Amino acid sequence: MEKLKKKIGSFSFWNWVIASIIFRLILIYFPKNLNLSSRPEVSTPLTSFRRLAEGYWLKQSSMSPYAGSMYHGSPLLLSLLGPLTVKRIEGQPNHLLYSLVSVIADVVSAMLIRATGRNLQFAYLRTLESLDLVKQIEGSELRSSGDVAALIYLCNPFTIVACVGLSTSPIENMAVILCLYGACSRLIPLAAFGWVIATHMSLYPAILIIPVIFLLGCGPDAPPRKLFLQRHQQKGVLNESKLPHGFSWGPIIHFAFWALVWSVYVLVLCGISLKQFGGLWEMFKSTYGFILTVEDLSPNIGVLWYFFAEVFEFFRNFFLIVFHVNILFMILPLAIRLHHRPCYLAFVYVAICSMLKSYPSVGDSALYLGLLGWFVNELSDMQFSLFLFCGYVGVSLLSPVMHNLWIWRGTGNANFYFATAMVYACLQIVLVVEGVSAMLNHDRKLRRLLTGKLQDVKS
Amino acid sequence: MALLRRPLLVLILIVTYQFLQLWIAVGSVIEEGQKQEEFYEELLLKPLPDRKVLTHFHFQSSAPPTSNGRHHHLFPKAISQLVQKFRVKEMELSFTQGRWNYESWGGFDSIPSSNAKPPGVELWAVFDVPQHLIDALWKNLTHTLSGLFCASINFLESSTAYSAPEWSFPPASGNLRYGTLPREAVCTENLTPWLKLLPCRDKAGISMLLDRPSIYRGFYHSQRLHLISTGSGSEGMDPGIILEQTLTVVLQPNSQRASLDRASEKHIQPSWSLSSIFGKQVSGKCVLAETSNVYLLLDRGLVAELKQLHEENEKSAEKVLTSENFRTNPCFELSAKPDRIFIEESSLLSKNSSVLYKFKVEKYSEFEPFDLGLTWKIPVVWLCRQAPLHASRFLMGSGNERGAIAISLKSTQSSESFMGANSDDERCELRVDVFQVVPWYVKVYFHSLQVFVDQQPKAVSDIIEKIHVSPSKDKVSPGVMELVLKLPCSVSSAALTIEFDKGFLHIDEYPPDANQGFDIPSAIVSFPNFHASMVFLENDSLNKSPLLSKFQEKSHVMSYTEVLLVPLTTPDFSMPYNVITITCTVFALYFGSLLNALRRRVAEEERFLKDKAAKKTGRLPLLLSKLSAKLRGRHSEPPHSPPGPASSSFINSKLVLKVILVAGVAACWQHYFL
């Protein structure tokens, strides 16, 4: 009976996957991709497809792709995806091949998310077992978090829009997920590769090195180590085999080595492809420099564009530092408090980055919403989830309307659109804060259950 | 006494004048070997098909290369200093108001191709220095010119405003800088300093005609200053400079009411005279000028038309037009007798040729002022020669996010004759150069360049023979596009489209009238295969006239397209404080609430609160604990002992004391330190 149920469940999972792929293909066959590729929500200066094509054109006409301020992506992306921007197949939509690459990237990401989710759930169940808490938790139904996360990622309208809108964010997301997958399943070279590529493409995933180190050092998410010690002390017997591993430096050194190898490799490749132009310095200046200095003030779903369009010139540098340091400031407190849950830490970092980054797009939101699916069981008591859901729906409906009013009709003004961006930022803040406190509460709950059980045993 | 003295004064003046003239003549004889500074003034008048008159003033001063310091007799010192200081090899500055109407005023002759300029200010200069010094010199040059001509040419200083075309701009050279200010308003304050460079200013000679109200009433006026420094032969010699100042005005003569009354003569061209269009007459030449001539040009189309009209009556039409007894001309009547008549060397392509009447101003004096008048007797309709393709440019798309620029080239009917001549070749091709500068906030996607020939999309590589692009850098440099198109001769229309995204600027970068939009400077379309030149018979006497020798120079046929007005989205200019405070609030909310969530240790807090409640049972801690418990959404056990009323009043009085203390300190601070 159980098996049958599982089969039905998995069958419907594959159904959903196929449905989402077909839906993407249908959208791709719409004329001009529904103009999604020029939406500000989808294509930021970093992920825009048109800019990629422009960079490729410049490179083909033997100019540096970074001449002018159009292209700000990686030169590797240019060599890999550039040819697809011009290749056309008769009778097919213009950028079919490129769209197919995006679809494949999405599916691969979803599969990796699923595998990682299963891994995490397995680890979760094991820790529950070792704490003898299975029965208490079983009361609330356990969902297969891998499937849920993969389906959230695949069927999220944000992901679909980013995929059909030909932005490069599906590929960036895939690199991030690859890194987490590699770290979870202890494929250290893969994790290092994912981390290096993700950092190379959008800089912000660099801070994922902290969760990756925790993942490699202590294994996937588990309740705090203190709980195990407490439990075993209470029991009187210290069973070493049931304890989670302590922090081990071996895999981390291994990871550092591989990260070094991959980054040298990537830099050499970039150097070769930019040899006749400005070299690596130009690349760093127009990718990382462009990200850090927020030069482009075109509207997006973040808040920084309007801020820097309005702020007085002499305060600009100060605020640039403040906003970027805001990301860095939170790294340490989060790492201290959530070090026993490295995957969750990674999710929080990704969410914070996608909220505070200089050119956010819905592709970034799609990534952290997908990762949120891993923790359906832990976060089942999260507050405001309905409010957040409604907020996301409302903002994603209102934001294009306000953009249209401001840019196309000229009847609204910039403040309308900025207000939706503001609301979106607030929603993300609420999500992160509530998520973090829900996770901490979950740990508390486990402890309470444990102490309650112990007291039961004593009495 | 006064009566007696006056004739004496006049006599003395006359004698002095005679002496002076003699002295000048002697001087010129003495310094025959060494070239003198020279000044020429000329005026060209040309009736235009759409009932307007083109007047083209041409002043040329030249200073030969000298080694004897910086003394100039005629040549403006400001200009020679400028050339020396900035090592300018060639420079052109034009102030223009209105747009040259290529369709009805012609686009092939040398007047439109070298004097039709884009609206506003256009400046280009070629420097005689190594590449890395040019930009600094350009900046200084713009500031100097800005002061010299009372215009905001200094805006061309910033690197976003000028560009360095590689080869599409006619005086092709790597040392060229080119910049335009399409929105610069041109007025008398720019004309007056320009006139100051003339030796006679507007006090004598042809420049007397420059009556400000009538010039600025015109449909088009373009005031141009072009200088070439003829390279100094040896070191230590200052370079010779040729300064050419032209003013091109298109005016509508007030047509006589009497002729308009009659319906049959509605199509007759308006009759005009110098005094009717300028309100002034020429009373003699500028004494300092070598020559002072007025020309009347009847262009090919007009002459052909007149001949045709004539052939119905008489055989030898040409004779009539050129004959000395022009007063008997049945088509029109001139009020003054021309001194010479030139006929253009009829080219191979067409039998018709233009006719040029020359009038010498020196014959006239204050008592007998020169006033050329042209009275039409019969209605004439003709067309001016057009450039092979008529170029126009427009914007496509709507909204403030993106758009496209289209340059459309339409074949002009009159150009078919050139095509016919060229079609002997098997592959007849028409070469068109396009030079386009776009400001950085119009972010052009060069990969989206599309070419349409006769409304059919063509592969870009088939049509575009050569392309040079320098993409725009945000807030650093404008985008430059130089193209060489090879079109088939049979082309009837061609179009180039290129997409762009509109940029978003910082609020300080918007001009005061931000919602008016931003200008994209004119594109330059030139036809290197076609040369605008007019070669007149009897060359010998033409050498003396700079205007006519200018006509004989082979210059590319060139036309400027319209200036485009791109509306850009504006942010709310009144919002900086609001945006800063709101954004910072959101960031503070994020930082504070996340840190709060991380910091909270529920069990310890509860224990702490319990301890506190046990120790001190005030109302405030109770309230606080209740509040915090409520915030956490859970019940807290109330402290066991009920609070006493005395303690609460004690705390209240303490609080009041504190508040008073703080208020007092604040008041003192306010009073003494601020």
TrEMBL record, chain A:
Origin: domain of life: Eukaryota
Keywords associated with the record: Endoplasmic reticulum, GPI-anchor biosynthesis, Membrane, Transmembrane, Transmembrane helix
Topology within the bilayer: Multi-pass membrane protein
Pathway assignment: Glycolipid biosynthesis; glycosylphosphatidylinositol-anchor biosynthesis
Subcellular location as annotated: Endoplasmic reticulum membrane
Stretches that traverse the bilayer: 12-30, 96-116, 148-168, 203-222, 252-274, 286-308, 314-336, 343-362, 382-402, 414-440
Gene Ontology biological process: attachment of GPI anchor to protein; GPI anchor biosynthetic process
InterPro entries attached to this UniProt entry: PIG-U (IPR009600)
Gene Ontology CC: GPI-anchor transamidase complex
Similarity remark: Belongs to the PIGU family.
Name of protein: GPI transamidase subunit PIG-U
Organism this protein belongs to: Hibiscus trionum
From TrEMBL, chain B:
Descriptive protein name: GPI transamidase component PIG-T
Keyword Transmembrane in record: yes
Keyword Translocase: no
GO cellular component entries: GPI-anchor transamidase complex
Species, as recorded: Hibiscus trionum (Flower of an hour)
Top-level lineage group: Eukaryota
Transmembrane residue ranges: 577-598
A single BP term in Gene Ontology: attachment of GPI anchor to protein
UniProt keywords, alphabetically: Membrane, Transmembrane, Transmembrane helix
InterPro entries associated with the record: PIG-T
Pfam families per the UniProt record, alphabetical: Gpi16
